[in-house]
Amino acid sequence: MSVSALSSDRQIENLIVRYSHLGDEGNLAEFGALFDEADFVFGELTLRGGPLRT
After folding, report:
1. Burial zone of 33 (CB within 10 Å; 0-12 exposed, 13-18 middle, 19+ buried)
2. How confident is the model at residue 22 (pLDDT cuts 50, 70, 90)?
3. What is the pLDDT of residue 54?
4. CA 39 to each of CA 1, 11, 25, 35, 51: distance values in angstroms, whole numbers, following the listed order
5. Contact at 8 Å (CB) between 22 and 31?
6. Interatomic CA distance for residues 47 and 32, integer angstroms
7. What pLDDT shows up at residue 10?
8. Mapped to the 3 state alphabet, what secondary structure does the chain carry?
9. Looking at residues 14-35, what average pLDDT do you find?
10. How far is CA 27 from the centre of its chain?
């Protein structure tokens, strides 16, 4: 089943589980990749996710 065929609820559940597993494994590159398309909004400040830079 493709991701697009999953319900929003199931996609969120899968993301939370993936987030937890990658954090436990210490896999920071893949953990960070979960936020590639994220926007974090703090008042008037918006931080956009993107590839991990070293």
Report:
1. middle
2. very high
3. 56
4. 27, 18, 25, 8, 13
5. yes
6. 14
7. 92
8. CCHHHCCHHHHHHHHHHHHHHHHHHCCHHHHHHCCCCCEEEECCEEEECCCCCC
9. 90
10. 13
Distance of CA 20 to the CA centre of its chain: 11
Can you read off the two tokens belonging to residue 25?
């494994």
Residue with tokens 């210490």: 26
Half-sphere exposure of 19 (CA within 13 A, CB side): 8
Decide if pLDDT at 1 tops 60. no
Tokens 């937890």, located at residue = 20
Average pLDDT, whole number, for the chain?
Answer: 84
Q: Can you tell me the distance from the alpha carbon of 33 to that of 6, in angstroms, rounded to the nearest whole number? A: 20
